[in-house]
Every structure is written in C-alpha cells, then in structure tokens.
Amino acid sequence: QVQLVESGGGSVQAGGALRLSCASSGGSFSTNPMNWFRQAPGKDREFVAYISANGMFDNYEDSVRGRFTVSRDNAKNTLYLQMNNLKPEDTAVYYCKLARYDVWGQGTQVTVSS
Question: What is the spatial distance between Cα 33 and Cα 14, in angstroms, rounded to a whole number?
Fold first, then answer.
C-alpha cells in the first residue's frame, strides 16, 4: 500500500516562496504520475499540478502557471512543488495524490499573508 507524506508548508509573506515535498513509500513511485491539489477554507479541493511518471510532462492550474513548478526525484521517491511569488489566495492545505488512484497524503498547510 502506497503511503504519501507531505512536508514543507509554513507561513510566508506575499511574494515569498516555499518548496513542498511529498515522500512516497510502500509502492512503485517511479511508475505513477502524480498530482498536487489544494483546499482553501470553505472551498472545494482543487487541482494544482500534474507530472508524468518520468517527469517529462507537466500541467498546471491557470492561476499558478508560471509561479509553481512540479518536479520529482524517482531515485528518492519524492515529489516536489516549488511555489514562487506566493499570493494570499494561495493559502490552503496542499495535498499530493497518485494521479490514477485514490491515494492522498495528509496535507501540509500553506499560509500567505499580505
């Protein structure tokens, strides 16, 4: 059974940066495409980014494209989300997920103050 554990969240001011990590264990990370999602208070969980299993392809939600970068290190079984030029509207709990299965991490809180 694959387990996912996010880390790297925190509180930053607008314009700042954070890098989230998602460590995978118990399965074949390198063969799984991955997603990042986020859920802001009072809102539905929304898609943020996608990366293919080999890291060659990615896709982003429109509001983060150009500011966020998804990457992965299959040798370390770890997924990343580099978030630059953060805005208050990026405040949310961020989750990693196997793209093809209903397997989620526990989430990590990101808070951006103006």
Answer: 30
Taking the C-alpha atoms of residue 102 and residue 41, their distance in angstroms, rounded to an integer, is: 22
Rg (CA), the chain: 13
> pLDDT by residue for the chain (114 residues), tens digit each?
899 999 999 999 999 999 999 999 998 899 999 999 999 999 999 999 999 999 999 999 999 999 999 999 999 999 999 999 999 999 999 999 999 999 999 999 999 999
**C-alpha–C-alpha distance, residues 91 and 35, integer Å:** 18
The CA-based angle 57-107-47, given to 5 degrees, is 40
- Please report, as a single letter, which amino acid is at residue 108: T
φ/ψ of 62, rounded to 5, equals -60, -40
Q: Which residue has the tokens 């314009």?
A: 15
Q: What are the tokens at 66?
A: 């150009």
